[in-house]
Amino acid sequence: MVLTLSSARILEQLQKHRTVVPVEIFTLAKSKDPPTDALPRFLSVFTSNQRIGTLSKENYAGKLIDEWNNALAASDKKPEVVDIAPSISTFMAVKDDEELVGHLLRVHSAAKLTLGCRKRFGPPLTRP
Fold first, then answer.
1. CA-CA 20 to 30 A from 10: which of 25, 32, 104, 118?
2. Average pLDDT over all residues of the chain
3. Cα dihedral: 119, 122, 126, 128 (round 10)
4. What CA–CA distance (Å, rounded) separates 80 from 52?
5. pTM over 0.85
């Protein structure tokens, strides 16, 4: 992620914890400070991928976007850009009753399995 210093301070918590998707933060300099190498480093990481997911309906504008578009245009290697909006809409869609019942059954089974393992292999359960 290419972020301002204030945003980077907030989101660096994501970078500290090990997550399924690794997070790398590239911090931009304030307008009064000399520029950092955040954009070229991000471009290097960006172009090292074969495929990149994006929300293509979003339109961004500003100085940073112009710098980014110029840097990407000058780059020899460009990844394939794929619209991920359909995947996100499927994931976020309202579920029907059959899907919800299946999900609840899986959660219930996982809870019973966890409790069974805890009773059999863990220390005795005590009430406070």
1. 32
2. 83
3. -130
4. 6
5. no
